[in-house]
Design a protein that fits this description.
Layout: E1 2-6, H1 10-20, E2 27-32, H2 35-45, E3 50-54, H3 60-70, E4 74-77, H4 84-94, E5 98-100, H5 111-117, E6 121-122, H6 131-141, E7 148-153, H7 159-162, H8 175-182, E8 186-190, E9 193-197, E10 209-213, E11 217-223, H9 229-233, E12 242-249, H10 253-262, E13 271-273, E14 276-278
Parallel strand pairs: 1-2, 1-4, 2-3, 4-5, 5-6, 7-12
Antiparallel strand pairs: 8-9, 10-11, 11-12, 13-14
Helix pairs in contact: 3-4
Length: 279
């Protein structure tokens, strides 16, 4: 099986690593705008299945050409979410299955085209979103009636690794993506009514809580994006009174980012200081 991986950042490297060691994969084309750096990395790692190709993903015609020429059995998109629709469209056009770890975003608009072509399109196939949603749906299907659902997801560095920085966290995806997630509004169901928290306020004490996880200990939990859209996805009925999605981090994380948000460090609004605009 041949795989085409688009994007050779932190997540792309991890995907290529797993594919390199998978007996199901015989060839890997890894595409990135920084092709020279990607080649140096794969050479250092001694990868034998990987062929690095240059790509400017901002040019749809180049995307389409690459997918045609690479002739993969699957297209794996590890580019930032803004590139996802164009990549999915190129994969569908070539009749190749598409998978990514990003939220679906506007991809449902391509559903008709994908079905007409008989192409599988699978966004939200990471850990969060992804594994958490699959496990959530499996749990729901075991129950007759669901009155409330809380979904928790976390990617935690080992304590010794987390202790060397003030946020007790390691960036395993784009730092810009982390910050955007922290400013994303939250939507959820509470006491049978839809509720929302504006971006930047999810870390406030009244909006966050602590969860004790057996074998791990106490973790900070905070609202993670839009839980309302998953009510229909999970097939939940009118009996539902509570629905929330949460992310978890080591203790102290919420307090740190609450201060940063209050000070405006997560606000992208441009402000002029002297002759310079900053955000």
């Amino acid at each position: 099986m041949k795989a085409l991986v688009l994007g050779f950042g932190l997540q792309g490297k991890a995907v290529v690593h797993d594919l390199e060691h998978s007996p199901a994969i015989t060839q890997i084309a890894a595409a990135d705008i920084a092709a020279d750096k990607a080649r140096a990395y794969t050479a250092q790692k001694g990868y034998r299945k990987v062929r690095v190709v240059p790509l400017n993903a901002a040019q749809p015609e180049l995307l389409e050409q690459l997918v045609r020429e690479a002739a993969p059995h699957v297209v794996i998109c590890m580019l930032p979410p803004d590139f996802q629709p164009a990549v999915a469209r190129a994969a569908i056009g070539a009749g190749v299955p598409f998978v990514s770890s990003s939220y679906a975003g506007s991809l449902p608009e391509l559903d008709g085209l994908a079905q007409a072509k008989g192409v599988t399109v699978l966004p939200e196939m990471g850990m969060d979103p992804g594994i958490d949603l699959i496990l959530g749906r499996l749990a729901v299907d075991e129950l007759d009636v669901v009155h409330g659902m809380r979904s928790y997801g976390a990617g935690l560095p080992e304590p010794a690794c987390a202790a060397d920085n003030p946020i007790h966290y390691k960036i395993t995806w784009t730092f810009e993506g982390v910050l955007k997630a922290y400013m994303r509004p939250a939507r959820f169901l509470k006491d049978g009514k839809e509720a929302a928290i504006p971006g930047g306020r999810i870390f406030r004490k009244e909006n966050s809580h602590t969860l004790n996880v057996p074998g791990v200990g106490a973790l900070d939990a905070y609202y993670n994006g839009d839980a309302m859209r998953y009510i229909d996805v999970f097939g939940l009925g009118s009996e539902l009174r509570e629905m929330g999605r949460f992310a978890m981090r080591w203790p102290g994380h919420n307090q740190f980012w609450d201060v940063m948000a209050e000070l405006g460090f997560l606000d992208e609004t441009r402000t002029r200081m002297g002759d310079t605009e900053i955000s």
